[in-house]
Amino acid sequence: MSPMFRALGIRNYRLWATGAIVSNTGTWMQRVAQDWLVLTQLTDNSGVAVGITTALQFLPVLLLAPWAGAVTDRFDRRRVLIFTQVAFAVLGLTLGLLVVTGLVQLWMVYTLAFGLGVIAAVDGPARQAFVSELVPVDYLPNAVGLNSASFNAGRLIGPGLAGLLIASFGTGLVFLINGVSFVAVVFSLTRMNRAELSAQQRPPRGNRSARAGLVYVRSHPEIGLIMAIVGTVAMLGLNSQITIALMARLVFDKGAGEYGILGSVMAIGSLGGALLAARREHPTVKLVITAAAAFGVTSILSAVMPTYWSFGLMLIPVGLSALTMLTAANATIQLSTEPAMRGRVMALYMAVIMGGTPIGSPIIGWVGETFGPRWTVLIGGIGTLLVAVVAVLVLSRSPGLRAAVAQAEKGPAVTVTATTERARATRTPEAETVARTTAAHKTATSEVTENSVA
């Protein structure tokens, strides 16, 4: 099998990927339908209302991240995912029935969007960490890349299909289809051979707190740097569900079908970025920064495109650079995090990606209504480019951070001696996490210094 698809050689991962692509397609269909429902049926082209809906959907991820990560590390992730898929299905079907029966009101969409956010807060870290149980650790970058490819294959198919269905039957049918799509993931999870799953390394008693995840990230500056970059980009630049809708509707005067096509065109670049990531065996922090800068530049260029089709074509490199940044960040963090902490760390990572949206999306919506839709894209591009420049400056002026980055590219390094074990008995879990991190970073600093002298 091609190295790009080697994770698919594992049966459990094939089952996971098959169910995921069905569900991902349904999810992207719902995103388009939800924005279009709010923008054209429940309001008079209100970018603020779309922004509020998006914010309510992602706010719980920000608020519940530490708790959700603790749940992911403590309980069986496969069972957690079965629960979240059933909950997603119920919410999707509820919204579909409300639309079909003509009972839907804006406050109902707000409420259901918030409910989706609560479930997503638990589903996100469980989904990310579960991949490490499906494949060996050396397959993890490939599996992360293929996960993103599956997500963006759904993004490629979903928006265009949603646009056609909305134009023909309205938004209600799209929500119903999305609700049913989660059955595919539940089926895949129940068909897996549990004996072939890697054992989930759960934290020992006394080290299961949500706070331990925050301490771990704070004591790993390389993870903090990645999260700062991705969080800023998510807040300012990853609001395509708002910006593309406003550009299609108000700048180019297009309908639901053309709006859906733009989402699919952007997914071509995103899918390309995900497949390139699947080939990459060693993601790095420098790649995250470079891809963020590329995303900023291409976003700025897309904002000034004069026609619908030129804007659509520029969305391809926008999607490519965005997915390169996200997959590199995801794989780097997972590979550099101890297995027993992975759920809590990934929960915080999901929080900065999805949680930045509630802060940025209402602002982006207001900017679109006040200064025009093109400025919603320009602000994201300029902000992203600036954060990439700041990251380069910080990295160049901090030897300790460079040492931590070098260690992150090797994976977690924790050496336990008999003396350390005796000392550990008198430490709190949070102090133990910091002690292990300090030792690893001292070793990394020493190695970098020796290499520089040589």
Task: Describe it.
The protein has 18 helices and no strands. By secondary structure, it is mostly helical. The chain folds into two domains: 3-191 and 208-408, MFS general substrate transporter like domains (Growth Hormone, Chain: A, Up-down Bundle); 418-453, no CATH class. Helix 1 (11-42) runs parallel beside helix 5, helix 8 runs parallel beside helix 14 and helix 9 packs antiparallel against helix 15 (373-396). 57% of the residues are buried. Residues 421-454 are annotated as: Disordered. Keywords: Cell membrane, Membrane, Transmembrane, Transmembrane helix, Transport. Residues 443-454 have a biased composition (Polar residues). Residues 1-399 form the Major facilitator superfamily (MFS) profile domain.
